[in-house]
Amino acid sequence: MHNSEYTNPVRIVYVGGGSLNWATKLMGDLAHDGTIPATIKLHDIDHSAVERNAAIGMRYSAASDGAKVEYHAERAEEIRAADALSDPLVQPVGLEKTTTMFRERVADTRHYLPEELTSGVAA
């Protein structure tokens, strides 16, 4: 991510948000890009890890000269309020596998998402 032209605020539910590896990479990318205002709702079975990461994320945001990103430690999520759902456990390799994985993910979560996010994607 670098200097994205996408400037509309986004809401992201991050499942596995207690991860020090994947979560902090997202935080660093958003802070470095600086153009994407966002609210990130971190969710994980390890709530203390989510609280730690929310604090780390807020430090990333404070250090960034760009658009601010808010990080919240959550115990339960209302997925319908999210613009994106991030799940670091799925790691596809290759374009065909990535496309297949995204189509399957949309089909599995279609009933949670607004119509405008799933229109045009085969069930």
Summarize the SSE layout with pairings.
Elements: E1 10-15, H1 22-33, E2 38-43, H2 47-63, E3 69-74, E4 84-86, H3 95-109, H4 115-118
Parallel strand pairs: 1-2, 1-4, 2-3
Helix pairs in contact: 1-2
Structure description:
By secondary structure, the chain is α/β, with parallel strands linked by helices. It has helices at residues 22-33, 47-63, 95-109, 115-118, and strands spanning 10-15, 38-43, 69-74, 84-86. 39% of the residues lie in helices and 17% in strands.
The amount of helix comes to: 25-40%
- Let me know the average pLDDT: 75
Strand content: 15-25%
Number of strands: 4
Computed structural class: alpha/beta
Number of helical segments with 4 or more residues: 4
Topology as a string of helices (H) and strands (E)? EHEHEEHH
